[in-house]
Amino acid sequence: AQSVTQLGSHVSVSEGALVLLRCNYSSSVPPYLFWYVQYPNQGLQLLLKYTTGATLVKGINGFEAEFKKSETSFHLTKPSAHMSDAAEYFCAVSPYSGNTPLVFGKGTRLSVIA
Amino acid sequence: GAGVSQSPSNKVTEKGKDVELRCDPISGHTALYWYRQSLGQGLEFLIYFQGNSAPDKSGLPSDRFSAERTGGSVSTLTIQRTQQEDSAVYLCASSIGDRHNEQFFGPGTRLTVL
Lengths: 114, 114
What we know:
B: mainly beta
């Protein structure tokens, strides 16, 4: 069984500040990990994913995440927040075999203050 | 368009009525997923189709929910005798069906049951 925990349902940062959104997972098999972003009244857009290989993954819009197996974490970061980053962010896990429904965290709403 | 499309974008219905929600996946994608997004609950898996295999219905919350996928393409999610707790955003996603499991999401259908 798999589960995802996102710490903080709401995170607020100042424009230009570091963004850190936390995600911890549990999985009985090696996971694939995803971060999706959802803007108001839109579907989910893939930000980045970890499958195998390099544990530091770079995504769109300057975001990156690091897979840390020992900590069962996949935290999302961006060095400098922009107003356009304000959205809902979801972390998701899939088993190594893939091709199954994703298990999502409850999401973190990011607010960016001018 | 090349993305996943869903219709209608919004649906308001009265308690007890039946509703049908439609999903057009990306052409060539063999896997199709339905998720439900309720306020504060994240995304909840409902049903999953892969090629010609029997669908995985393990996420359907009650027998009032059903879905079909015709010709391996378009899918319809049907909710019979709608209840107020069915109010949510219903999201459809598709993928090419490989183990990397990158799912592409549609914009969703917002269902409101009065």
